[in-house]
From TrEMBL:
Keywords: Signal
Signal sequence region: 1-16
Keyword Signal among UniProt keywords: yes
Pfam families with a match to the protein in the record: Consortin_N, TPR_12
Domain Consortin N-terminal per the UniProt entry, residue ranges: 17-63
GO biological process, one term: positive regulation of Golgi to plasma membrane protein transport
Protein name, entry field: Consortin N-terminal domain-containing protein
A molecular-function term among this protein's GO annotations: connexin binding
InterPro entries from the UniProt entry: Consortin, Consortin_N, TPR-like_helical_dom_sf
Record GO cellular component, one term: plasma membrane
Length: 151
């Protein structure tokens, strides 16, 4: 825990710590095994990380249609492998957030998984295995919503 906190304190605002959500999740799992109430705090911190990522993604998506219109792009293309990797990473964050919300807030999970699926479709196409996995998560979320609404 002290190592984790020192890592956080060493970060500047502009640095990215892509392992942060995994660290938070692992710490929460440690506390869950001890049946400690602190686990909830780390789960909430992990969720907050993904929500911030979602806000940043939404802002990025608002800018993207303007850029595509300026470039005259009819299809979805990524300017570089780094941009594709960043979008794929954001989609993974959205999927993780959907998994965190699936039981407590399934409608929110559906929104997150839908956005992740849209990114995967745009990046990889409809027939790619990553897109198929994303669609499976969305179907799982729909099933969970159906269970809660019709039972």
């Amino acid at each position: 825990l002290h190592c984790f906190l020192s890592c956080l304190l060493g970060l500047t605002h502009v640095q990215s710590f892509n392992s942060l959500p995994n660290c938070l999740h692992q710490i929460a799992e440690l506390f869950i095994t001890e049946k400690n109430g602190k686990a909830l705090q780390f789960i909430q911190a992990e969720k907050m990380f993904y929500e911030v990522a979602l806000i940043e993604l939404t802002a990025l998506q608002r800018d993207t249609p303007q850029e595509e219109a300026t470039l005259g792009s009819a299809g979805a293309t990524w300017s570089s492998p780094e941009e594709l990797s960043e979008q794929a990473s954001q989609a993974q964050h959205l999927e993780r957030l959907a998994q965190l919300c699936i039981m407590s807030k399934p409608h929110l999970a559906l929104e997150y998984s839908g956005k992740a699926t849209k990114i995967h479709q745009r990046a990889f196409g409809n027939d790619h295995p990553i897109t198929a996995r994303s669609l499976e998560l969305m179907a799982t979320v729909y099933a969970e919503i159906g269970k809660t609404e019709y039972s």
